[in-house]
Amino acid sequence: MPRHYYSIRMRAAKDGTHISGAEGIYERRDVLDIIRRYTSRALTHEKGRAEEIRLTIEELKERPKRIPSLPLCTVNTRNPQMVKKVAKDLLMSVGITERAIDEAFTAITMGIVMRGAMLMNIEGVRLEPDLLRGVRVTRMGITRSASLTLARRLGRLGLNNTTVKEALILASKVHRHPMVLGELCISDDPNYTTGYVATRRYGYVRLPHIKGRGSPYGGRAFFITGGEVNTLIKYLQTTPVLINRIGPCRGVVSIKDILEGKSRH
Ligand code: WAQ
Ligand code: MG
User: Other CB atoms closer than 10 Å to residue 39's CB: what's the count?
Assistant: First the structure.
C-alpha cells in the first residue's frame, strides 16, 4: 500500500474562458506521467488549444477512502419530455418532491452555467452558500486496476470515454454520503445530449436525449436531506475518495425493471 498520494488537478483556459479540466488521485510514481497526460489533453482539446494551463499537485494528508463505483445502466429515453418523466419516477421514489425536480430542471435549462452543483432540499429549496458558483466536488479518483476494469466493462457497451468515466467517478463519490438522496446531471457541452440521474438505490442511470443538440446549458443538482450542510460540503470538496472496485455496468434497461429492482445485482 503506497504511503503517499497526490491529488492532481488541471484547468485550462483560452481567451479567459474554461475549456477543459481533469483530476485524479495518484501514487507518487505516477505523478510525472499524469502531468504529461493532462498537459497534452489541454493542448489538444477540441474547443481549441489552451493558452493557460493550471496544474495543482497536492500531497494528501489523509488516506483516501476506498469505495466501489455505482452500478451503471441506460434507459432508452427518446426526448426531453420522456427523460423528465423517467427522472421523476426515479427521484420521487426515493422521497424527492416533484416540485424540487421541476425546480432543478428549470434552473438548469434556463439559468447561466454554474461551475459547481446546486444543493436542494427535497422541497426544492436551494441550500448552497454561493448560489452563482454552486459546490464543486473535488479530490476523487480511481485506482489503476479499477480504471482498467471500468474501461473493459464500458467498452463492451460502447461507452468507454472520459465523459462517462469522469461522471461515474464523481457520482460515486457524491452518493456515498448519506445526506445525498439523488442527483440530476445535464452536460454543458452543446453536443453531449445524454445526462443521468443517480441515487444509491438505483445507481447511475444514463438518460439519452435529456436536451436537444446544440443547447449550451447544463448543470447539476444534488437533492439532500437531514444533517449539517457544511459537513456535506466539506466532504464533497475535500475528502479524498478513490474508486477501487467497479459495480455492474449494464446496457439498456427498462424503467420498470429498474424500479422493481431487477437491474440490481
Ligand atoms: N462538481 C460539481 N458540479 C460540477 C462539477 C464538479 N466537479 N463539474 C461540473 N459540474 C457541474 C457544472 O454546473 C457543469 O456545468 C455541469 O455540472 C455539467 O458538467 O453517462 O459532462 O462536465 O453518458 O458538462 C454526463 C455523462 C456527462 C452521461 C456530464 O458534465 C453519460 C458532464 P459537465
Ligand atoms: Mg462540460
Answer: 15
**How is 6-66 classified by DSSP, letter by letter?**
EEEEEEEEETTEEEEEEEEEEEGGGHHHHHHHHHHHHHT-TT---SEEEEEEEE-SSPPEE
**Best probe residue, ligand 1, of 185, 193, 233 (max atoms within 8 Å of C-beta):** 185
Query: Which ligand minimizes its atom distance to the CA of 185?
Result: 1
pTM, full prediction: 0.96
pLDDT digits over 184-239, tens only? 999 999 999 999 999 999 999 999 999 999 999 999 999 999 999 999 999 999 99
Pairing of strands 219-224, 118-121: parallel
19-76: pLDDT as tens digits: 889 999 999 999 999 999 999 999 987 777 889 999 999 999 999 999 999 999 999 9
Q: How far is the CA of 1 from the centre of ligand 1 (A)?
A: 31
Q: Are 213 and 190 in contact (CB under 8 A)?
A: yes
Rounded distance from Cα 27 to ligand 1 centre (Å): 25
Q: What's the rounded Cα separation, in Å, for the pair 167 and 204?
A: 9
Pairwise CA distance, residues 227 & 177, whole Å: 11
Cell of 93: 421514489
* Domain ranges, ordered by start, for the chain: 5-61, 66-264
> How many C-beta atoms lie closer than 10 Å to residue 259's C-beta?
15
